[in-house]
Structures are given as C-alpha cells and as structure tokens.
Amino acid sequence: MRNALFVPRKIQTNRFLFHVSHPACREGIQKYGLLVNEKSYSEIPAGVYAHNLLTEPDYHWYPFVLIGDYDPGCINDNDPLKLYDFWRIDTQKIENNWYIDYAGRYDFGHLIGYDPKDMYIYTDKDVSIRALQLFRLQNDQSWQFEGVKGAVHYRGIGEFRPYIE
Q1: Max Cα separation, the chain?
Q2: How far is CA 112 from CA 35, 58, 68, 104, in A?
Q3: What distance in Å separates the CA atoms of residue 160 and residue 137, rounded to the nearest whole number?
Q4: Cα torsion angle, 136, 140, 146, 148, sign
Q5: Are 124 and 83 in contact (CB under 8 A)?
Q6: pTM over the 0.70 mark
C-alpha cells in the first residue's frame, strides 16, 4: 500500500517551470529531453521534478537548500547557483499533468522556514526537448549609448537569462 503522503494531486502550474540539473547532464537533456526518473525501490513517485516559481533561482531551490551555511549575499564567480543549469519548461508546448511533490515540500519546508505549498512539483511523463530552454546565472552585462539629442542611455541585462553556448 502506498504512503498517503504521496497520493498524487493534480495542480495548475505557472506557464513556465524550472528543472535544475548539473551541466554534466546537459548533452543528454539536449538530445532526449527530461526523462522520468524511475525509482522502483522508493515511495517517491517516478517523475520529472521541477520548481513552480516566478522568481529567479535562489538558495531555497533544491538542491541549494542543502548548502547550509553558504552566505547567499556573497555572489561571485564561485557562487554555487552559477554552477547549475536551469531548464525552463514551457507547459503550453506539452500535455503533461503536474502534481505536488509532497516529499520535497515536507523535506525542505522546515529548512526554508515556510510551507512551500506548490513550489516543488513533478510530472509522471517525459518532458520533450521542444518545451525546454536552457537558462543559467551569468555575469551581468551592461552598456551605454548616446541618444539622438546627446543624452546618454544605459541598458543592462540581468544574470538569469537564456544560455547560448
């Protein structure tokens, strides 16, 4: 009998979700998409796990919550967040059902200090490469340019954006 904790509950998600992975997995994801992780030995459902958030990645995202004493205010080139790939999933390009990841919710909720409700989610079907776009935390970029009447304008793009190899 399955643990009542893991009874799937279908939910509506944001249009865009994010799956976190190590860059060592990038080639396989670019070739096959995100594949369901089969765990026949576990009570945790087999699936593709993601974050249902509208914010940029921070240390409340898995696996960063496991870092512990790392100071999130100290962002530099050694920032662990910059080591990971973030695959943006466009849910309008696939017909997957999404469910609350109760294991993630209960395992990490006490570490982040609140109940993350539907922050951690999963689907029980593979995610096609046509629904994926690779994002990474990169160095800020900015530039100045002169306007028509001599005014100087400033443009910049943030750290979290699509990644082009």
Answers
A1: 73
A2: 28, 11, 11, 11
A3: 4
A4: positive
A5: no
A6: yes
